[in-house]
Design goal:
The chain has about 220 residues and is α+β, with helices and mostly antiparallel strands. About 50% of the residues lie in helices and about 15% in strands. Helix 1 packs across helix 3. It is globular.
Length: about 220
């Protein structure tokens, strides 16, 4: 199977998104998933060499379930339209993500919609040490490739913080995540693994800031 077949499977799944179709095409799904594993196994090994804190023992264990959680979101289709691969340091911590999908192909990382307690801790860390996160976001390497997710940011200042706070733009964030959009051409290229590893290293300072905030406070 080739990398292109990952997307061929996802295209077929999107057109026939049902358990009945998946049951009939389970072997095709397993072949596509195996291609994702084959693609990310050497990438995971490279990342673990530069950062032994990453806990995933294999690329297979790093792939997210393709089933949507219909208990909490019954309006969603039965299956996702993408393969998600997550590398991180433990449950509940900020992590690194690569999504191979039909609508979006992205490399991302951070804390996505953290609960109120984690959000409070990150804002406290920004209040005390916001200069560190600001430097990450303003570094040349970060700005060259990544964008901070601001779509759901507050329009006003969060409770307990002045609208004139030095880091008010950071305090207004409700998700602390950054992403870069890539293309199928990037995935198909021989340099994809290097792109993912370099992206990981770019995001590590942000991940470290967030994980310090939610574990040390």
């Amino acid at each position: 199977m080739a990398k292109q077949d990952i997307f061929r499977f996802l295209e077929a799944l999107a057109e026939n998104n049902s358990k009945e179709w998946m049951d009939r095409n389970r072997s095709w799904y397993e072949e596509a998933k195996q291609e994702v594993i084959h693609l990310f196994e050497p990438i995971l090994e490279n990342i673990k060499e530069v950062d032994p804190r990453v806990i995933q023992p294999s690329a297979r264990r790093a792939i997210s379930r393709i089933n949507n959680n219909l208990m909490f979101h019954p309006e969603r289709p039965t299956y996702k339209d993408h393969f998600g691969v997550v590398f991180g340091y433990g449950k509940g911590l900020a992590d690194f993500y690569v999504g191979l999908g039909l609508r979006e192909i992205e490399i991302a990382g951070g804390l996505w919609h953290p609960d109120s307690e984690k959000l409070k801790k990150v804002r406290q860390e920004i209040d005390y040490e916001g200069v560190k996160l600001k430097k990450v976001f303003e570094s040349d390497g970060f700005k060259k490739d990544f964008e901070v997710y601001r779509t759901d940011a507050l329009k006003t200042s969060p409770k307990g913080y002045s609208k004139d706070h030095e880091y008010i733009e950071l305090l207004r964030l409700k998700s602390f995540a950054a992403f870069r959009q890539i293309t199928r051409k990037d995935v198909y290229s021989s340099g994809f693994g290097e792109m993912v590893t370099e992206s990981y290293l770019t995001l590590v300072p942000m991940l470290d800031f967030l994980n310090t905030a939610i574990t040390d406070n």
